[in-house]
Amino acid sequence: MIGYALKRFLGAVPTLFIIVTVAFFMMRAAPGGPFDAARKLPPEIERNVKIAYNLDKPLIVQYGIYLGRLAHGDLGPSFKNKDFTVAQLIGIGLPVSMRLGLWAMALAVGFGVSLGIWAALRQNHWQDYSVMTLAMFGITIPTFVTAPILTLIFGVYGVNIFGQEFTLPVGGWNGGAWRNMILPVIVLALPQIAVIARLTRGSMIEVLRSNYIRTARAKGLSPQAVVLRHALRAALLPLVSYLGPAVAGILTGSLIVEQIFGVPGIGRYFIQAALNRDYTLVLGVVICYAALIVVLNFVADMLYGLLDPRVRMS
Amino acid sequence: MSAAGIGGGRKAETLERAFAGRSLWADARARLFRNKAAVTGMVVLAIIALLAVFAPLVSRYAYDAIDYNVVTCAPDWWPVEAACKAGGSHWFGTDAVGRDLFVRILYGARVSLAVGFVATLVSLLIGVLYGATAGYLGGRVDAVMMRAVDILYSLPFIFFVIILMVMFDRNFFLLFVAIGAVVWLTMARIVRGQTLSAKHKEYIEAARAAGISPFGIITRHIIPNVVGPVVVYVTLTVPDVILIESFLSFLGLGIQEPLTSWGVLISDGANTMESAPWMLIFPALFMAVTLFCFNFIGDGLRDALDPKDY
Question: A6, A82, B16, B288: which has the highest count of C-beta atoms within 10 A?
Fold first, then answer.
């Protein structure tokens, strides 16, 4: 098990390294720079600014400097947000994004799994068909359509239908008040609920047909015990390997959701920073996201190995 | 595939006729046309595509014709009270500078569908070449090539696409390349897996033993068996690509004014949804319907081409 973990972990390091390298050179290959402001700086000042940020050195040297700092956990100063380091900015934005993402994830797993089980137990009945139709909607309709339409229903027309009391705010963060969280979290979770419901349904149906479930039923266990204690464990296995893609999906969705609802998370930083050519901030956010995905893929692999001994052996 | 079964003592000629009479494709087509959802999807999609292609003939408005007399006007039949009515021929109302929304949606469909097909083609080309090479050569080459795909797979690609689009000033051509480069990975995996498994099948062995030339084996046996999943994946890639393009356009990184795409229209609509909900609802509807169509067709094709599932 430890050997397997080590092998997996060592596999993650080159991935992160490649991400940093590609992102670094891709940004530098593009025309324009962070200090191409509308008002041209006097040449001496521009030179001094460039020296201060090491932008005067050859690209490969800059890359070396960046990697060296990164090895010490230093993401450098932000080029555009004066007086802030990238680490500070991420420190402000990440908790907000994490809060949003974790709630969405919890909602997605909770609803997705229960809907999936329900559909599987009522296979080919109306319950199954309605869950699968809903899942189809969830998978097909993108976040940037559901977000404004749900806002329109619950935030704008809501005043006439549910009254002022139950109208949700159409945007803003308000320090993370739960009323402001409801819509972003739901919008973020919807596609994942759909995928997870489909996955759970599929594997549950397969597991329910297997021999050991028949044995469990034959020895007279209650239907609940059969489903929850015997079938569910095996049925949730594919879900574990979906953990990585799910997190990636939520991160991608958060770019849109944070933009639409005005949530001050790192997704918004990323778009802004890319538009401003704030090299260090873009790299910082990419590294942050990539690390998250790589780590969660690693965790998913480990969990899978822990839950299914067959994987470890091969 | 049962139609292509070993003919036993039958003569080669009869076997040949059996092929012509009921091939894998005829079977698949029959199954596909029995699937109501898939047929509906194809019909609706065809209508949208035709409308998009003949957009200049369908509407008497130009997509970029600004008319300040009908700024942000609701269509005449709009059920809710609106500030102004656009007049009879603006079926879906007008946008913030008085352009006809219907024709703009059709032009958006042009861009979205074009990006969808071209980027999918790019991914098909790269993916099939890469995957088939890896699968056919096998061994160490395969291991190295697929390990590279694995690494690329774990990258948060959407971020690279965003960086690319921002840094190179929203270049239209680059949009195709960038999106195509993102989606070829899955294609390569599918093709490689299919090639690998097809290479060692008994019917290939049987065909070889029967003295069929390698070219015949590839065209008659390997390709039909590899093509199925690829076709299915292509139909599912197109909506994915449309989504990515709209995602970028929504963030303001894709198509630029006065040209438009569904992402841009939805983004505009989201900004004005309190005063002009039609600007959000119609583009969103068109996009959702199109995506549904592709998904239904994809699912239908999968069921049609993979009789094993029955």
Answer: B288
Using the beta-carbon criterion (under 8 Å), do A151 and B273 form an inter-chain contact?
Answer: yes
pTM over 0.95: no
Q: Are B266 and A148 in contact (CB under 8 A)?
A: yes
A286:B156 CB<8 A: yes
Number of neighbours of residue B150 by Cβ within 10 angstroms: 13
**ipTM (interface pTM):** 0.74
Q: For the CA atoms of A23, A28, A31, A37, what is the dihedral angle to 10 degrees?
A: 100
**Distance in angstroms (rounded) separating the CA atoms of residues B52 and B81:** 30
| pLDDT per residue rounded down to tens, chain B (310 residues) | 344 444 444 455 555 555 555 666 777 788 888 888 889 989 999 999 998 888 788 777 777 777 777 677 777 777 776 667 766 677 777 777 777 888 888 888 888 888 888 888 888 888 888 887 887 777 888 888 887 887 777 666 777 777 777 766 666 777 777 778 778 888 888 888 887 777 777 888 888 888 887 777 766 776 677 777 888 888 888 888 888 888 888 887 777 777 788 888 888 888 887 777 888 888 888 888 998 898 888 888 888 876 554 4
In three-state secondary structure terms, A128 is helix
Of A306, A299, A184, residue with least CA distance to A243: A299
Determine the residue among B105, B149, B162 to mutate to test chain A binding: the one whose Cβ has the most chain A Cβ atoms within 10 Å: B162
**Strand ranges inside chain A, DSSP E:** none
Q: Among A141, A147, A251, whose Cβ lies nearest the Cβ of B156?
A: A251
